[in-house]
Design a protein that fits this description.
With about 500 residues, this protein is an all-beta fold. The protein has 2 domains: about 90 residues, no CATH class; about 325 residues, Kelch-type beta propeller (Neuraminidase, 6 Propeller). It is about 0% helix and about 45% strand. The chain contains no helices and 33 strands. A 5-stranded antiparallel sheet has the order 1-14-13-12-11, with no helix packed on it. Strand 24 and strand 25 form a beta hairpin.
Length: about 500
């Protein structure tokens, strides 16, 4: 069973700045490894894209921030410290009110227009002097299904990926979680990044290298008071993954974190009606595991014992995504083996009692799985995933009975529906990727698809970087008059970059 090696570590600390920060020595530029205080008094961080090898951090003044340092400005203050925060699962962290130094977060277009002022400005397709729905101009002043803003996050010209997203409308915040590479030796590191909902402006960024192995944040959920709950895993020195769960405050301070002492992984988190947290994932190594879910109080204290599902030996059984079902409990989707792999969806009440489940086999045994899901405002739910290496969507009624035949569509390579979001009128949005073939070509293409309630295609668009290679959209979340999508793209000069866009709907 899940035994958390840390009961609930209550932590604060870190550092944050509101706008600009002037440094006097290198020790004040320690949010990323290699931070340096330049002669002009602004922090810079390593960047292979700059001739000088350094780029100014986000707390330099406008026009300087995220710009390459010119060689004649280079210099350092007194060497009082440096390096990125690190730990071994004990909660060491760093946070700022902008993206961590060494990062480059760019927007296209730069959000400068004011929607509703009656003037059509750069980035707007219309502006009728208001932000009302139902008139000739969309409330966000762009055409339907077009981008409101776009952001890309490039940590240090290495690997940066977004896996999940959630929205806090009250605080005008978008939270993206995934991974980043802080240094050449840190492998993949946990990443939580806040952006502005209205304009896409970068906010604080929190990252941590646990023990030199691959660490990643897989899912995020904002609770009732605006705190940010994140689930994922950390990898120890021996290469064993350990499920990891944490809560951060809206300003990026680590409140508590948990780290399982056994080999395991957390892949999904959700907030229940009563404010409790539920996490899902796998217990055991990939290929030899069972699915688990566990309830926690808002303080991170486990509430009851973990619930295990699937006992088939030497199999990949795991919960991948979980959603709250108001008045009922939770719904989990993932993969479960019963002699053969099945796309698995199950409902449990708040005490862990199984209420209903449904399994979809794969005709070729190609490890089908549910990856993302959402509740429809018209009733029922939809599960997105992969079956027979093809994109797959299955709709259920309120009793978890299939409502009609699933949607399946295939291309060469592995194709996947990674997530689903419903709009208030029953339209729905799918995101994912097609043509994934890491072994031969290392390529995939991201895509987003807008659909009528009956499944009729409205728009489908490819998403990719400019460098060829792996481009994936992995999550979509509702926001006022829009949806937010995230994933990652491969760019020619900066490698894999976290990618984030707000689409008008």
């Amino acid at each position: 069973m899940i035994r958390w090696g840390i009961a609930a570590v209550l932590l604060g600390g870190g550092c944050s700045f509101d706008t600009e920060f002037s440094c006097e020595d290198d020790g004040q530029c320690a949010l990323r490894s290699g931070g340096r205080c330049e002669l002009d008094g602004w922090c810079s961080y390593p960047s292979g894209a700059c001739e000088s090898g350094h780029v100014y951090g986000p707390y330099a003044p406008p026009g300087v921030a995220d710009v390459c340092v010119v060689p004649e400005n280079t210099g350092t203050g007194s060497q009082t410290g440096g390096g990125t925060s690190s730990g071994t699962g004990t909660g060491t962290s760093s946070s700022t009110d902008e993206s961590d130094g060494g990062s480059s977060t760019t927007g296209t277009p730069e959000p400068a227009a004011v929607c509703g002022n009656g003037i059509v400005e750069e980035g707007e397709s219309c502006d009728d002097g208001n932000t009302a729905r139902g008139d000739s101009c969309h409330p966000l002043c762009v055409d339907l299904y077009e981008a409101v803003w776009t952001q890309e996050y490039n940590g240090t010209d290495r690997d940066d990926r977004g896996f999940a997203v959630d929205v806090d409308v009250e605080r005008d915040a978008v939270y993206v979680v995934g991974l980043t590479e802080l240094t050449d030796t840190s492998d993949k590191d946990l990443l939580v990044h806040r952006f502005g909902l209205s304009d896409g402006a970068p906010g604080w960024s929190w990252s941590r290298d646990a023990a030199g192995g691959d660490d990643r944040a897989e899912q995020v959920a904002v609770d009732m008071v605006g705190d940010v709950v994140v689930g994922g895993h950390e990898t120890d020195e021996g290469g064993v993954e350990h499920a990891w769960l944490a809560k951060l405050s809206p300003d990026g301070q680590l409140i508590w974190e948990l780290r399982d002492s056994m080999g395991s992984k957390a892949e999904g988190v959700a907030i229940a009606d009563d404010g409790r947290i539920v996490a899902v994932g796998r217990l055991g190594e990939l290929g030899d595991s069972v699915a688990w879910h566990q309830w926690y109080g808002p303080d991170g204290i486990p509430d009851g014992a973990p619930v295990l599902s699937g006992m088939e030996p030497a199999s990949d059984t795991r919960g991948i995504d979980v959603v709250n079902v108001p008045g009922v409990g939770i719904q989990i989707t993932g993969v479960l083996h019963d002699g053969a792999p099945n796309l698995w969806t199950a409902r449990f009440d708040g005490a862990g009692t199984l209420l209903a489940e449904h399994r979809v086999p794969d005709p070729n045994g190609d490890a089908p799985r549910g990856v993302g899901q959402a509740l429809s405002p018209l009733g029922g739910t939809a599960i997105g995933g992969v079956r027979n290496t093809d994109r797959f969507v299955l709709f259920y009624d309120d009793d978890l009975v299939p409502a009609h035949e699933p949607w399946e569509e295939g291309d060469p390579g592995q194709d996947e529906v990674a997530d689903v979001a419903f709009l208030d009128d029953g339209r729905y949005v799918l995101v994912g990727f097609i043509g994934f073939n890491l072994q031969e070509t290392g390529t995939a293409d991201g895509w987003i698809r807008f659909n009528e309630p009956d499944g009729t295609l409205i728009e489908q668009r490819p998403i990719s970087g400019n460098g060829g290679g792996l481009d994936k959209l992995l999550a979509v979340e509702n926001a006022p008059d829009s949806v937010i999508v995230t994933g990652y793209v491969k760019n020619e000069t900066t490698g894999f970059d976290l990618w984030l866009r707000r689409f008008a709907i």
